[in-house]
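To: structure desk
From: M.T.
Subject: fold request, one chain
Message: Could you run this one when you get a chance? Sequence is below, nothing fancy, just the single chain.
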Amino acid sequence: MRAFKRYLIAGLLIWAPLVITAWVVTLLVTTLEEILPESLSAKALFGIDIPGFRILIVLAVLILTGLFAANFLGRSLVERWEQLLGRIPLIRSIYKSVKQVGDTVLAPNGQAFRRAVLVQFPHAGSWTVALVTGTPSAAVAQHLEGEHISVYVPTTPNPTSGYFLVVPASQTIALDMTVDTALKYIVSMGVVAPPKTLEGA
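Reply: Done. Structure tokens follow.
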């Protein structure tokens, strides 16, 4: 029975990451392909089914859009488009919120999700790994004394949900690890241990 259990666990350790990776990739591919209508599929255009054809179209559209928006004319049209969306009540709120998050997270020189820290959560004396997202806005900072930082505390084992906290910078501990390593540590519930090197924040 012990040998059976050992072999079963060994098999799971090999197959589970492969199956989960394949599932995530399949889900991503399916989601990207569903963005475009069936009329733009390879079967509709050429009469044959080419896996991933619509993904290539999506990538091409993204690249061409980026090239177009990089020049003066493209920036002008994008600004006019954003002004138009800004006049629609419901669309305005959703679009601006999503755009602000995208600009913050994807900006090459941004500070969001660039470093990991330890914070006391959910109560004093209990520590967890958090990702720094920036500094509090002026409307929030004016009610706080001293330097504070904004952090995101991912949940285990699903890091896409979590908690947003504003904590004193002096009460955090900077971790000598990358964000990827921190996420692995969180997702694995501490099983995949990162290097034990800490430095005070």
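Reply (cont.): Helices lie at 2-35, 42-46, 53-69, 72-85, 89-106, 138-141, 179-187. Let me know if you need anything else for the meeting.
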